[in-house]
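Why run this: before we spend reagent on co-expression, it is cheaper to look at a predicted model of the complex and decide which construct boundaries make sense. The entries below are exactly what would go into the expression plan.
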Amino acid sequence: MRVRLNNISKEFDGTAVVKNLCLSIEDGEFMALLGPSGCGKTTTLLMIAGIYSPSAGTIEFDGRIVNRLPAKDRHVGMVFQSYALYPHMTVYENLIFPLVIQKKPKVEMRREAMRMAEMLGLTDVLDRKPSMLSGGQQQRVALGRALIKKPRLLLFDEPLSNLDARLRITMRAEIKRLQRELGITTIYVTHDQTEALTMADRIAVMRDGVLEAVGPAELLHEHPPTLFIAEFIGHPPMNLLDVVLEDHEGQLCARLGSLLLEVPRWRSPQRFASRVKMGIRPLHVTLVRHGGYPATVYLIEPQGNQDVIICEMEGTRISLVTTPGHNLAMGDTVHIEFQMDNVYFFDAESGKSLL
Amino acid sequence: MERLSDWMTRIFLMLILIIVTLPIVLGYAWLLISTFSRRTFGLIPVNARGAFGGFTLQNWSFLKDPLIWQVTLNTLIFALGITVGVIVLSASAGYALSRMNFPGRRFTLTLTLLLHAFPSITLLLAIYFVLRWISALPVIGGLFGYNTLGGVTLVSIAMQLPLGIWLMKGFFDHVPWDMERAALIDGCSRFQAWWKVVMPQIRPGVFALAIFSFIQGWGYYSFLIPYSFMIDQTRGTISTYLNNMISTTSPVNYGQVAAVGLFQLIPVLLFFLLAQKYLLRIFSGGMKGTA
Ligand SMILES: Nc1ncnc2c1ncn2[C@@H]1O[C@H](COP(=O)(O)OP(=O)(O)O)[C@@H](O)[C@H]1O
Ligand SMILES: [Mg+2]
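The model came back. Tokens follow.
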């Protein structure tokens, strides 16, 4: 099913929580809605589900405006962060609940529940109450309950945030595989960029109720259109440095304190901005033996296969990624080099990319 | 050493509890003993000459009076009516106050709390006029007017409602929004979501309120309201029957009064024994998620 949000807004008691959101999701697409908590993701999802009605704008399912369609008639399945399982029912009763409401025949309920239980590995716990299940199992029951009525649209609201790290990775893969197999249009809300990057076809980034950008993960990662996205997507986060752009005999340079960094022509800002921030990913800052610029090691974060080193230079902190085994200690002096082929420039005021 | 001090504390606590509950226990003991005695001297049953003895079943002879069974039935109807009325009305109002946003919501909440604290006795006169007015209506007047069981039930329900609504709202507040949303998305109408998903979560709370209302109806409300607004003996409750007994027979046979009192007390005591676990919820206010 194709979903279109046309300029939707939502106000609670006069406070706008979602502002003029336009987004269209293609049939069978996996769309992630990414943003820090409190930015209006859940509100947006609940509007799509039919729990809230938008204060302005329209929601279209396959070209049909559904603003006034009650939730029960929208053919939507939703998985909540809290799972929202019915504690007074067994796993089996939870699974078939949507079919019970639809007054489906008993045999069909049984068949569908068995199919779901098998697919999700719940056959052994069908008679248990949700409170007797592990977090991962509860998650599966919630997923099964959302899937059993064969929804045309699947909504996830931070479904993995209550699971431990290992389980999260397993479930991530499982949800993605299921979505691919069933081909159900999916909107997946998360504040975890890794989830969004690994699972979604496209990512819609929200900030303070406003849609910042939409696009495939690589695009947002390689060409962040705004400062916010540059900072939010990518791990470890991009270094954002206050620089002054200067012209030195035809060569554009970025001045960082007393340092002068040459900017390659094809990375030069296309527009003028009075205050500029230069972005460079930690991966593109390297330790060198000779030359480079001196910096003091501030903190070392070993991450197993790599170390993140945060160093101080010219009064700012810069993080860089390096292979382990450098034997550095806090306070050591290192020499670093910026790979200027990979820098970004942003207007510090508007936050827009200058590239 | 620690063991010993533990024991000391325990014994000390026991002693305090015993001392505090002693008057109550003695009261009940007296009640029980005096119903089977001609006279008592303190807790000791005595005969006419003041010696130990004088046991009798005379005091329970009221059980042969058809009127007692009539008023018992009345009391039962009265208490059940209150229970059903309070539950249905508080469940609806409590749900609305907990879940819906409507003009006057805050005001209603405040008013509910105020009314709960308001001494209902001060309303008796006003209620008299209301019941009189209802009496003048055709059909309804005969059912819910002055001097009818329906009327006094209605008044008692009204008196119990503020507490009921407030408690119910508290119970509903504990049910997560997401659960209700899930129900709506799973295909429920608003009413189905309420009935199939929300209500079962708060069943223990509802149960507690029901028992509480019944006991209140059986005991507390069954005197003042029927006494004020009912003239007919046959329409009265056990409490008014008891009152009648005290005010019409002279000298008052306290043994018999005690017997009727005990008779009225039996269902309440049974209820308390069976349901004290639930009743605690009323006082602890609300509940944790139940499996
Ligand atoms: N029902 C509501 N009434 C009032 N304010 C709300 C309601 N739901 C959400 N909000 C507010 O809207 C903002 C966005 O909430 P939400 O959509 O839950 O954010 P997210 O899911 O991105 O964390 C928050 O500031 C929250 O306090
Ligand atoms: Mg949320």
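The two ends of chain A are 36 Å apart (CA to CA). Chain A has a mean pLDDT of 92. Bring this page to Monday's planning discussion.
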